[in-house]
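[09:14] KT: can someone run the structure on this one? pasting the chain below
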Amino acid sequence: MAKKSILVVDDEHDLLDLLEYNLKKEGFKVYLADNGEKGIALAQKHQPDLVLLDVMMPKMSGFEVCEALRQDAEIKRLPIIFLTAKDDEASEVEGLTIGADDYITKPISTVKLVTRIKALLRRYEDTEQAEDQLKAHDLVIDRDRYVVVRGAEEFQLPRKEFELLYFLMSRQGKVLDRQTLLNKVWGDNIYVVDRTVDVHIRKIREKLGEGYIETIKGVGYRFRE
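[09:31] RB: done, structure tokens below
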């Protein structure tokens, strides 16, 4: 089996060296970039299996890098983890909303970090094996092309919005609480705030309309039957 590859983007060279050593020890192939522009170029060139991304960097922030990667058709589906010293809730929500899969604050032990990386890679492999198409009402979710289709319209949702809609739609009529949605879409060993689900639901509704996902007060959400 080919080695999984990880691109690490951070302007702290000591941290780059430490992460490179520990990730290689775990069997990963590692690419390094000390700024966002280099990170985007390496991601486009090598198409790694995962990106580990700092937020506070000169010239181009990690948030800007994440948005750029999510807009690139060739690499928009690759897993992205923020590893940052910005530990406020607003930054975490912003990072997850623009398309990151996990948001980890420094410092973290390399053992825990590697565990989170492996868990995310496993979850991505599982989603790739999910049913190719789901249909409900006038919507079709096409996993092969990663689009949502309604009549002649096509919507390209960010990965987490897509996966959240897919999960709700695959359990049409069932009420799902926020913790279940967080566990199934973000992973049960990834620590994100409940508000993250609400933000993603709101963005899905802004794009597709209010008629598909129902809010169950005090409980969670349901895709309408």
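[09:33] KT: thanks! The longest strand covers residues 5-9.
[09:34] RB: yep, looked fine to me
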